[in-house]
Amino acid sequence: MGGLLPTPPEVDLTMPGARTLRGLLATLAVALVVSGCGGGASSGGTASADGGVRLADVEVAQDPRAITGPSTAVVADAEIHPVEENPTPQLPATVTDVQGTTVTVSDTSRILALDMYGTTARIVYELGLGDSVVGRDRSSEFAEIVDKPLVTTNGHELSAEAILELAPTVIVTDTSLGPWDVVLQMRDAGVPVVVVDSERSVQGTADLIQQVADALGVSDVGTRLAERTTAAIEAKIAEIAQVAPQNPADRLRVTFLYLRGQAGVYYLFGGGSGADSLIEAVGAVDIAGEIGWDGMKPVTDEGLIKAAPDVVIVMTKGLESVGGVDGLLEQLPAVASTPAGKNRRVVDMDDTEVLAFGSQTPDVLDALAVALYAPARS
Amino acid sequence: MSLTSPRSDVPTTSDAAPTGTASTDTAPPRPADAPTTPGPVRTALRGATVRTAAPVVAPRDEARRGRVVALFVVLALALVALTLLAAGTGQLRIPPAEVLGSVLRRLGIDAGAQATHPSTDAALWTIRFPRVAMAMLVGAALATGGALMQGVFGNPLADPGVVGVSSGAAVGACTVIVFGWTFAGSWTVALLAFAAGLATTMLVYLTAREDGRTQVVTLVLTGVAVNAVAGAAIAFLTFLGDTQAREQIVFWQLGSLNGTRWPYVAVVAPVVLLGILGARATARQLDLLALGERPARHLGVDVERLRVVCIVLVALLTAGAVAFCGVIGFVGLVVPHLVRMLVGPGHRVLVPASALGGAVLLLGADLVARTAVAYADLPIGMLTALCGGPFFFWLIRRTRRSAGGWA
Amino acid sequence: MSALRARGIRVRYGTTTVVDGVDLEVRPGEVLALLGPNGAGKSTLLGVLAGDVTPDEGTVELDGVDVRTLRLADLARRRAVLLQENRLSFPFDVVDVVRMGRAPWRGTEREDDDDAVVDAVMATADVTHLATRRYPTLSGGEKARASFARTLAQEPAVLLLDEPTAALDIRHQEALLAEAVRWARDGAAVVVVLHDLTLAAAYCDRVVLLAEGVVRGDGAPHDVLTGELLTDVYRHPIEVVRRPGSDELVVLPVRAAALEEIR
What whole-number distance in Å separates Cα of residue C253 and Cα of residue C247? Predict the structure, then answer.
């Protein structure tokens, strides 16, 4: 996830005389962000990871705790499988979005689905309306969309001009991407904007799918997709439950760490971030929940050591930015003192997939399960 | 000891016959509140000295007027040119002809060039024009606030931030960002930033007051203290916030005109215009204040009241500017100084020229912010700090070096 | 009827009484010198007369009107004050500085005469040739003269001057005081704080000698400026002689013995 490097705490940048210094530091920071967050390209990113092995095809280790070494969770099949090809939307569609605004959508020929996790875009494709999608956000990098123009700048910031350049006829978004004023500007410009839920979880996936489908006038296609996804998720959870240790005491203690760069930006993802839901679904213990961690906050060394995770899940690009597993253990000695650190059990997964949820959830769960329980083959 | 009579005959108050006069002499009827100045006092001026006195004022004023007019014309042209340029530049390129065409269409005249892209009108009227308008307003507000502050403190290095308005506004904004308040919808941040900025200024002023008087030095030092406390508050809020909040805080502190909409312009415009008009009204008194507090009082200026009025105006202007766009610094320092260098320190010209100059400067800076790096929107406060910082250093060195003070 | 009258003025700063029961009166047409050693209370008294300092006791009347009841704008039209320090925060031109003296007349008919008045007073103060110079670039003496011009531009009925000759050379000292006398002759009342006793004796109609906040002498120069009184007040041997061939007083410190000792 894009972010700005926070100012180092040692320098007091509040005194009036240090304004220039702050300005200079800010230049540096912004320059780093702009260069590091891929603020240049308007299209053509690298497609998300694909082609991993399925849980059903691997042999599960006897004692997951005894596994050592890092592994990468790769989705077996990242391809879009739409429920229906090119459905005909029932238009005009009038919906009350999650903020209570009544929006009427009368044209779905040019769609933009934007959010921090890339969920909504994928849902639109799975609803069979992929051909109408005209642009993408930074978190959408699956093969079918990756060549479409980017409408975010400076990381995850929406660009009003980029959006208008694509002349969309409907925008589906949640409140995770800002600035909010840009969304309002789109409404000012006469483009219908439907706001969907911004919370992500395994259980909330069906609801989200339905919201997106309703907004685009393909409600029954949405219902079918939601049902298909729910069924697949439940089946997958059951499958993983077979494979995971039966005794709760033997279950893997897992936590999700957000890493970025060398400046010490590390966050623990807890309640409500989606990570908790994910970890529980793969039959592991969400230790952030155990220590009452809410939201996404910077990790404290003591907290991490006390929680003693067996496995740490991270995003792939985040891991790269700290210099791989070695870099991580060096920069975060607290991790090195945990069982996860001692066994070098770091599982990384594609940034655009791991917390996306949505219709890809079963595949993500599968890939994670493989990485957790049968990594020798991944 | 007795009082002796004066050496020669002194005409008493009522004989007021002016003797051999220069052409400008008239015996003015006395207005009700005029003191009983003996007429002959004026006679001294009608005497030989007037007839031989070389006219100095009139020719100098002529020369000065020429430069002032030139400056205003240049600034106005620059503003128009930049507006056309800024409206047409961005990810969606709109040639000036189409910009004009769109404006004409809005006015009901279907004469200009047609739009070539379906989103041209939308881009112009929902993104570009509001942003251009806001840039002009904010630039004018900051520059005028700077001119006022410098006049009140009698120091060309004074900056509106000294009275704590910027850091107070920042505390207000950061509080909303961190705690996610939305009681006023999308206006919440601006509302609280504005209120907090004003409150902080009042706090600084009241704290620095003693016996109904404020010393300039005390005011500055109190401002420094308050700025420090505000800084600590912001640091604490930064610590409390989550990732998203921190990003928002940082970008708010760096300033940005991204996301400007007409309703925001509609709020800022009257505040800024009020502030500028108010500033213009104090112009003459600020000139007199340059002589010093006591001499200004001797010339009829209520210094304390002037100070209060100016501080209120500065708070209004700066808070209004900062509330929606975050902290943008150095404009109030750079623009008035450049204007002074070109047309002198007289405030009747300085205030409107600074307003215009500030509008041009910020419009230009925003254009650079939007276009310097492809697909990126640089924070504008960062740009102004980048240029303003070195200028500040140069200004300090220059004023220290020059013999007579701030020339 | 006096142009300026102060009665029973007492000013205290903390526990020190700086001005202790002073009565002072100036009539139109008079030039009054306020003399005394350092710390005598002259500048404070001048501040009281100007209306800047509110005395703890006593009243000041300008043309019979209590100064405290007058608005600042009205005060500005009746009296002008020239202080010792001549600072300027911004680089105004000299002519603009002089023009500031016209400020109290804005909005009245007198405003029409602004240009003529400014031209005239600048000629009087011999600063016409400095008109377009920046004030901060002037020498101390030139600044003093320009400020004097500004004071005159106010066309005051009462003129209060605090050591106006301090920075001036002989020629300009004489010119300034001569001008003050000329103004008095035309009806103004002038109060001048001076250190140069000879200068005071030459140009002033009356002299008030202040020491430790109290009036030690008030009258014509010939009457007040005597060797014994001055020696007592200034705590230094002083001799008052007449200039050969005229009636002018010359006040001189007695220094022969002291010089002997040093050499």
Answer: 19
* pLDDT tier, A11 (very low <50, low <70, confident <90, very high otherwise): very low
- pTM of the complete model: 0.81
Q: Is C197 on the interface with B (CB under 8 A)?
A: no
Query: Among residues 274-293 of chain A, which lie with CB inside 8 Å of chain B?
Result: none
8 Å CB contact between C152 and C180: no
pLDDT score of B53 more than 70: no
The Cα–Cα gap between C150 and C118 comes to: 8
Say whether A249 sits in a helix, a strand or coil. Answer: helix
Chain centroid to Cα C129, Å, comes to 25
- For residue range C25-84, list pLDDT tens digits in order: 999 999 999 999 998 899 999 999 999 999 999 999 998 899 999 999 999 999 999 999
Cis peptide before A92 (omega within 30 of 0): yes
pLDDT digits (tens, 9 = 90+) for A150-204: 998 877 889 898 999 999 999 999 988 878 889 999 999 999 999 999 888 888 8
Specify the 3-state DSSP secondary structure of B234.
Answer: helix
**HSE of A315, CA atoms in CB hemisphere, 13 A:** 23
> Are the C-beta atoms of A148 and A136 separated by less than 8 Å?
yes
Judge contact between B201 and B223, C-beta under 8 A. Answer: no
Mutation target for A interface from B258, B333, B386: give the one with most A CBs within 10 A. B258
Please give the residue of chain B at the shortest CA–CA distance from A298: B242
Q: What b/e readout covers C6-26, taking b as 16+ CB neighbours within 10 angstroms?
A: beebbbeeeeebbbbebebbb
ipTM above 0.90, yes or no: yes
Number of H helices, E strands in chain C: 10, 12
What Å distances lie between residue A329 and A252, A325, A338, CA to CA?
Answer: 20, 6, 10
Enclosing H/E stretch for A364? helix A361-373
Q: Is A7 in Cβ contact with B250 (below 8 Å)?
A: yes
Chain B partners within 8 Å of A14 (Cβ): 167, 227-228, 230-232, 234-235
State the Cα–Cα distance between residues B226 and B229, nearest whole angstrom: 5
Digit-coded pLDDT (tens) for B264-282: 999 899 999 999 999 999 9
Closest chain B residue to the Cα of C98, Cα to Cα: B57
**At B46, is the pLDDT very low, low, confident or very high (cuts 50, 70, 90)?**
low
